[in-house]
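Hey, sorry to bother you again with one of my protein questions. I've been staring at a protein lately and its backbone has me curious. I owe you a coffee for this, so here goes:
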Amino acid sequence: MFNPNPAVIALAVSAALFSAHNNAKEQKITDTLNDLETIVVSASRTEKLLKDVAGSISVITSDDIENQAVNDMSQLFKYDPSVQVTGDVGGAQNIVVRGMGSDRILMIKDGMRMNEGYGANGLNDIVGRGFIETDILKQVEVAKGAYSSLYGADALGGIVVFTTKDASDYLAEGETISGKLKAGYFDLSSQSSIAGTFALRNGDFEHLFNVSTRSGEEEQNYNETKSPFDIDSNSFFYKGKYNLNETDFISFTADIWQQESKGDSADGLLTYFRPLATFGYQIVDENAKSTKGVDSFQLRYQSATPTTWYDFLNVSIYHNETQQDDVEYSQLDINAPMFGVIEIRDMWKTGGYNQKTLGFISHASKEIYENHTLGFGLDIETTQSSRDVIEYREVAGDTTKDVTTQKFPKNDVLRTGIYINDEIKLIDNQLIVTAGMRFDKYEMDPNGALKSTGETFLKVDDQDTTFNLGALFHINDVLDIYSQYGQGFKVPAYDLAYVEHYNQPTSEYIYEVIPSEDLAPEKSDTYELGLRGRIENLAFTSAIFYNKFTDFLSTELMSHETVNNQDGSFSHIHDKFQYRNLKSVTIKGAEFGITYYANDYVSVFANAAYQDGKDNETDLYLSSINPLSGTLGVTFEVNNFSSDLVLNWAKRMTKVNEGQAQSPGYGSLDWLVNYQLTDEIKMNASINNVFDSEYARYSKINGHAVDTDISNIAEPGRHFAMSMSYQF
């Protein structure tokens, strides 16, 4: 069954609905409350009961991923209105938490920092994030709000923690071999998938292997007017574990993921030339190919054997490399004597992005005395990033252009952080108070690179101290209230501080982005108050939040020039932009979720999220917030069968600035079916947008002009997904 987050109780509902059928309604509710014993790691960097967390955490489990027939990161949070994933299958994707996204959300996999993105205005629309195979995921957690006091730089608006599976997730006590075979089809992107997982235990050694392959194409829009690129992806995952004793182990993980997309369109290369067809510039051929890949390796030591200095210790070193190469080609047949050009021109544009991170991360905890636990750790990470674009042209075999541009200089970043976290339980464990502090030092070195003016790019050297304070009070066995305050910060990334970009997308317009080296770190303050629990057959959760961001980075128009020809006629417009600390931004909102158990077989659930965000200086709305939205659904389950009807809805978005498009309200119904045919075989299916409704999400509309034709970004019509698995 799916998990209607953002409610904490929704996680409990998910587990309860997919447990064995109980004959008593009261027992089902008890099981739901017991599932609040679920372990999460995002709130404290160590295992902690979900019920003891003073904050909102959305959780997606491996069961949710399978039961919802999820096959791509873009679908992970489709029933959580507080979390959005921008971008479609095969495209650049980013996670937005409570209206804040891009690199202001820190993404972590098994403790390792995942890649940063790249694109215009920090939107990461060229290189996305979260290159990962969903079949290897055991759990995904989204901790909302500032978490820099635990995780350091970039945890400005929240963190997303991916936890991968272990061999023990497949092997029962005494088993030496187990595994799972899975096949699926997703007609939205015509994607077929096959995955095999094998778990082995030999003495003190455990091994997990997963091999996955997917073949399909890009998502279509409602009118199916796209010419989708073909997309193929492959993943190999291995995790080996050696148990030193009952409490300590050493593990090694290798995660290799690759994706290739190709098609017959080269828009990035031909944007300038398409309008010139009437002047004799004819496109004879065009195609594009993009390859993305991530190689990550981790060596970990974990001990739960108490010593003088710690009761629990987790230390790991890791290497993570992300590479994306985009190649576009076109041939032009040019017959433009008015410009003095008659030729057959072959053109290539190749963009390469590379980021390597080497890290040492550690966390330890020690019980000082009963009900008082101290957590502490040291993180050291270094990252090297580069982005090159090569433009090459040939005419009759002769090179006419060969230019390599660095969109930002190759740079090295060193992050060092030390933190402490103190948890105290009072009043017979009814009150849990958590306080934390972290000191971070950040250095970014452009390695002597020169600007186009001949000046040297400056080094960036900064430091910051962040705090957090949270409290949770168990009012009684079924009702909790909590509050938290957290701080976040983000040092300006390489693509903002060092970007130097010149582009002429049309013959009449040139824009330029000039470097900004005096940027201050962005900072945030998060306040949250929540209540969760149950009243007889009704389980609920609620939260209100207020996030203030200062020194917010945005582009500013530095100059606007109209350039004329020598005869005085119009030639082109030339704009110059620069990233500046311009804004103080506030995002506030509320989240609410309920589940009602009507009887032993039927439950009804609903959730909603409200966001409001503005620039405090200009009073303009932020385009990253979403309209009031949520889900409404009903679940039926009996024995090995369950079925869900889920209505995704959103109110009309009217909080837009003058001249920008609003998004109409909508409702779209999904139908999910899960059936355990035998102990080994399970079937999962879904029909999405059952009534074939035409609508567009605001996350795709935002920023568009009021008169823009948005039919090409409308959500897909009716489509289905299905998977079958065999576990042995």
Q: What stands out?
A: The helical segments are 8-17, 25-34, 62-67, 148-151, 267-270, 494-497, 698-701. The first helix runs from residue 8 to 17.
